[in-house]
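This week, study the protein below.
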Amino acid sequence: MTSTSILHQTQWMHTAPGLSFSYQDDIAIIKMENGLENRINNQFLEQFSSILDEIEGEPSCKALITTGASKFYSNGLDVDWMSTQSAHTVVDFFRNFQDFLLRMLLFPLPTLAMINGHAFAGGALLAFTHDIRTMNSQKGWICLNEVKMDKVANPFMAQYVRTKLGDGQAFTDSLVLGRRFTAAEALRYHIIHLSSPLSSLAEESITFLESLCGEDGYRRSTLARFKADVFADAVNIYDRDRTQDKVMVAEQFFTEAQKAEMDQKGPKS
């Protein structure tokens, strides 16, 4: 069965602007459909988080898949939207975004990012929060290109990516140099777990998850404890830098008007 037929036979249980949510048997699937590039903004985070609440509230669910539509998994943060907001809204957005990344990192179910197309910057950071990554072998790059945008990933983000990739070439090429990886390259560097043509990507991703979960799945409380232990360094950094560091990350994206607003009003605690 092809990935297209799998997703088309699934009855979508929940729709919101930019997102669809369904179950394929006991696996939850969130499909991002927020315009062509699946850019991330506050509304997107609120809706995504609401769906995560629903999934956590369903005891029969064994795992979570996220994927995109069209040519992008996600092209990162909605910079155009940020440019129209107040400075404090942008700061709040970065707090919300990092809260969201932390929640995905520690989510009490196995998570799989099914990277259907390009995953850049914040979209790649989202993919890296997942336990498993699979990727379209025919089209798409995964790339942490913040360095090429003159932006700096904060220590929390850097730490959980380091935990995923280790301290070797994959990490430095990804985060320090902003290298773009095709599926074949990402597989060779152990950034992803498998690659497949788009026509079979969903089927192979679901099969991979089912083989991990087995008939009984994982006990959520146990899996959550393991994730908390494995990512303890990232969590500690997140807690330590809870306020000021997030302001510093947000400031990199300020327009001149937003900078002037912050200079006049000062940071909000």
